[in-house]
Amino acid sequence: MEKVLQFLKEAQTYYLATMEGDQPRVRPFGTIDLFEGKLYFQTGKVKDVSKQIHANPKIEICAFKDGVWLRVAAKAYADDRLAPQEHMLAEYPSLQAMYKPGDGNSEVFYLKDATATFSSFTAAPEVVTF
């Protein structure tokens, strides 16, 4: 999990895929945080991505850096506690202008049952589960 965290932080931008009915939806994300032994990302409850994850928790993440790409297939679950929201916003102070812990919109999700695959054209894939 630490390797996945480090890769996503260094890549800075990753792409998160959800499903809306039978249509995949992909958008760029930049938040990733380790809290209480779980990887979290952050969004707003008013956004379509939040609604899509609540309807179907299966997500995929994809990122690329230095000739290596990472794909993470997981389930994402909301954590409504203030502590993970506070931790996330402390890690990403630029978001504090838009989100506040407990503001009714800030939302963090943690990854569960994750399979992460590091791939490149020059090495065998490396799979990590958490």
Walk me through this protein's architecture:
- By secondary structure, the chain is of the alpha+beta class.
- It has a single domain (2-129), classed as Roll (Pnp Oxidase, Chain A).
- The protein contains three helices and eight strands, in the order αββββαββαββ.
- The protein has helices spanning 2-11, 48-55, 82-91, and strands at 14-20, 23-29, 33-35, 38-44, 58-65, 68-79, 106-119, 126-129.
- Strands 1, 2, 3, 4, 5, 6, 7 and 8 form an eight-stranded antiparallel sheet that branches.
- The chain is globular and about 45 Å long.
- The model has no long low-confidence stretch (mean pLDDT 98).
Outline, from the CA principal axes?
A: globular
The number of distinct β-strands equals 8
Tell me which oligomeric state these chains represent.
Answer: single chain
Ends distance: 6 Å
β content, as a range? over 45%
Keywords, separated by commas or semicolons:
130 residues; alpha+beta; Pnp Oxidase, Chain A; eight-stranded antiparallel β-sheet
